[in-house]
Write a structure and sequence with these properties.
The chain is mainly beta and 211 residues long. Helices cover 0% and strands 49% of the residues.
Length: 211
């Protein structure tokens, strides 16, 4: 996860394959800008644009660039399909999309951070699906933190097909800095080194597969 969460220029949000012998299409960005997202509908693509949220100004507790607006528009008339305002400390985030299969809508991953100071910031991975003109939350989990002075842990993300149904699932693999300082506390590391979740198309959610 380390390479995924880097200070920005503004960073959200990677991946693997499924059994239909086709790679799961995916793309990530760690900066403001636009991604073209494949879409199983008449428009065939959507534009996902990340820009500063005009509703916020910098305050004593909010630095420039920490409030971002994610907006989906449909060509050719740039009709707004959905949007999601979010906050991430230091303006550092990552945004990704991952196709679940050639016939299904992609899912969207957003990695954001809260708290300030280098050895206090922690990050959360949230997964969304775009439906009913809104980004609907599917899953969320802590994805990085600290277990001592400057000793950091993080989950790397993979998207294999865990149950053989032709749909990409979610695997989180724990990694961390070397535990060499007496000030570190390994008991603060996450309990599970690998977390696996399968996507349930009936409930539109991730179910625990294996820990």
């Amino acid at each position: 996860m380390r390479a995924l969460i880097v200070p920005i220029a503004l960073i959200l949000p990677c991946l693997a394959m499924f059994t239909e012998a086709e790679a799961a299409e995916q793309s990530c960005t760690a900066t403001l800008g636009t991604l073209i997202v494949p879409w199983p509908g008449p428009t065939t693509t959507l534009e996902a644009t990340l820009r500063p949220d005009p509703s916020f100004e910098s305050t004593s507790t909010s630095a420039p660039g920490e409030h971002v607006l994610l907006r989906f528009t449909a060509p050719p008339n740039t009709r707004v399909v959905a949007q999601l305002p979010f906050y991430s400390s230091y303006g550092t985030f990552e945004f990704c999309y991952v196709t679940l299969s050639p016939r299904r809508r992609p899912i969207f991953l957003l990695v954001t951070g809260d708290r300030h100071r280098t050895n206090a910031r922690r990050e959360t991975l949230a997964v969304y699906e775009l439906r009913d003109a809104a980004l609907q939350p599917v899953f969320a989990t802590a994805t990085s933190g600290y277990f001592g002075t400057r000793a950091r842990w993080w989950y790397k993300r993979e998207f294999p097909d865990l149950d053989g149904d032709g749909v990409s699932d979610l695997r989180l693999v724990l990694d961390h800095d070397a535990n060499t300082s007496r000030l570190n506390n390994s008991s603060q590391l996450p309990r599970f080194s690998i977390l696996e979740y399968t996507f349930n198309p009936d409930t539109e959610a991730f179910d625990a597969f294996r820990r």
